User: Fold G7902 protein from Coccomyxa viridis.
Amino acid sequence: MLAFDREGGLWLTHSTPEFPNAPSRPYAGIGGCSASGDCSAQHGQLRFGQSFMCVSLGLDVLDGLASAIKTAAPVIASWRLISGIEMPGIRALVNAWESRAVRVVRKVSWRSFASVDGQGFLYTVKSPTPHGQATYLYEEVLEPLLGDSLLVQSWSNVESECSRDGTAVTMTVAEMAFPEGTSWRAGFSDHSKWAVTGHSDIAMVCMADLNRDGLDPEWSEGPDRPQSLRGGGATCLQHPTLWAAMRGAIASTQPCVFASSEA
Assistant:
């Protein structure tokens, strides 16, 4: 979600389905909570873990980010542009959606930007692709770009992937545990999508909008088409304190399957 006025705006990336709802409908809250507090667990918003990251941005940064988002060919649920504010990147994003003029080509884009307080971020996004041209966000895009292995939490129970020579490692989070005693098995009990690098000298945290696929998923082109064929990406920041907290909460990971038979 991108929101702004004449002074600046924000970029909210998250994993919750159907949030926010269209402005034409009364706000029902996450999971469909009414004003009286009654809730219905639509699509598991209330039952599953979700991730949110909100960044305050200047208008020029926000507009540049919109240009990168266009690579993902996103479905725009709703939009409204304020007259008198020139935002060519956002306008192009809206026009591409309304005209359905986005050509599906295999493409990866990335953009560095800073929040209004100066925190650096890296947004990496991949395009949707036809069947047989899968692009794996975590293994093929983020790991080479960040220069480190990843521990990934997403909506799946996919095994970790390791090469036999140790050069490529993508670990899937299996269990989370917190100091106050709360713990749970990840996978299908947690709908959040995030990753941390394996080493503290890199200390990168990424919030994503795609789940992690396993090796060569044989799924259809319909509503259940694999994440490796969909458009989407991740917003990453280097933050040792946040990295240590999230890395420390990972209690265990899924066992490895080997992506290479080389010794």
